[in-house]
Amino acid sequence: MSQAAFRADALRGYRLFESTDLDETRELISGVMQPHALVPSGTGRGRSHMDFVKLGGLGLGTIAFGDAMRVNVQSVDGYYLLMFCVAGNAEVHTMGRSMQVNRDQGVLCAPGQAFDALLSPGCEQFVLRIDPVALTTHAGLAVQDFAALVPVGGSHLRGWMQQLQLVASSSELLASARSNPRVATHLEGLLIDLFATGHVGNAIESGFASKRSLVSPGFVKRAEAFIEANCREPLELLDIAKAVGVSARTLRDGFQQFRGVSPMQYVRQLRLERARDALRAAPLDVRVAEIALDCGFAHLGRFAMVYKAMFGESPSETLRGR
Fold this sequence. Notes:
Blueprint: E1 15-19, H1 22-32, E2 37-40, E3 48-55, E4 58-64, E5 69-73, E6 80-87, E7 90-94, E8 97-101, E9 106-109, E10 115-119, E11 124-130, H2 132-139, E12 149-150, H3 158-169, H4 171-179, H5 181-211, H6 218-230, H7 237-244, H8 248-258, H9 263-280, H10 288-294, H11 300-311, H12 315-320
Antiparallel strand pairs: 1-3, 2-5, 3-4, 4-11, 5-10, 6-9, 6-11, 7-8, 7-10, 9-12
């Protein structure tokens, strides 16, 4: 069932522009986001607008073109870009996939990623810019840890969506965050932590298990074997790609297509499964930290966060219930 309409009333007080000139619209949006091409699918005479406000390492805004529009971006400019629709809908093509975007389903593009979006007449997008440094600082996650499709209307992200709704609809809260850097940092961290906990856990749970047995290219199978043999060691995307003899992009696209997750999500999932098995079989005197380290998790706090998002209980609860 579709969730209630997302309200962005407070963002209306941070309107950057309104325009009926397509070239002016393109130039003004590019100044905040990234260079892009706009190709009207209708008359091209709609009234465009953009609302946008910065909160630390986050940027929140809405964009509408007043008419059906194709938006082509060659490369997201150094940040994560999350989009879903406040009104209308869109079809987004990225990483070889076509995804439907609406109020229940969004799309997340990583830095450097290209995308092409066809927006319906009357579509208004909610856009969230996430600084990669802020993401790493608050959640300890990197480019490869997130799936492109984001079920913003799903139960895993309900807490995040409620908090985002509060920020976007409260003029007083936005004003306080704008005038007090500590409030802005607190909201930034809360939104990032809620998103990371909900989306990473959901992406791992839904993608990994459902596509694990599908027929796949040899390099994907070789990568799986390499990961299984080395998942206790520090692994990066380039390490895995080099081991199987393909580029990082080919490896990433192959895993997304045939496994439904990125290579690094696959690594994390395998480590989580091994940690859960170890916790269930552990002797009475073992510590959670020992098992986490033995399974390749160097940061206990992040391990506990993703473990609970995946299995619905903390590592210590699993240990106590063995």
